[in-house]
Structures are given as structure tokens and as C-alpha cells.
Amino acid sequence: MKTIILRWQETSDHEVRVSVPDDFHLDSDYADDIANDVASLDDDGFQYCERDSFEFEDVGNIDSAAEVLYEETGVLIDDR
Known about the structure:
Blueprint: E1 4-14, H1 30-37, E2 46-58
Antiparallel strand pairs: 1-2
């Protein structure tokens, strides 16, 4: 076994149905705040996530605190 630093990017899609004022337009003053304001919603609207741009860096020696991703057999560890 060895320890690596694994990096990737995630893009997630969200969709919620919300009520807004009649004058709501994304090109208005609301546009400046909407990115933060959606965080206050009870429903985060999560639909799905895409992961890509994987890269890794070998750190050399084994880190006993690192989570195990694959056993020596190459089988994914899934303890859910």
C-alpha cells in the first residue's frame, strides 16, 4: 500500500421551485445576491454530481491516518 493525494473537480446540478417578487430578473439587483441566497433554502435542490479532472500526487510513505480507497486486490472498499 502507498498513500497519495487525490484531487478532482466536482460540478453539481441543483433545481428548486421558489416564489419570487413580480419584478424578479436575473439581470437585476437579485443577480448580485442569488449565489449566496440559495444557500438559505431548506431544499438544496441537489440533482446530481459529475466528477472529473482527476490527478494524484504520490506522497511516498504510508500515512496510517489516510482512508483506504482500494484493497491490494484492486476492489473498491465500500462500507456503506
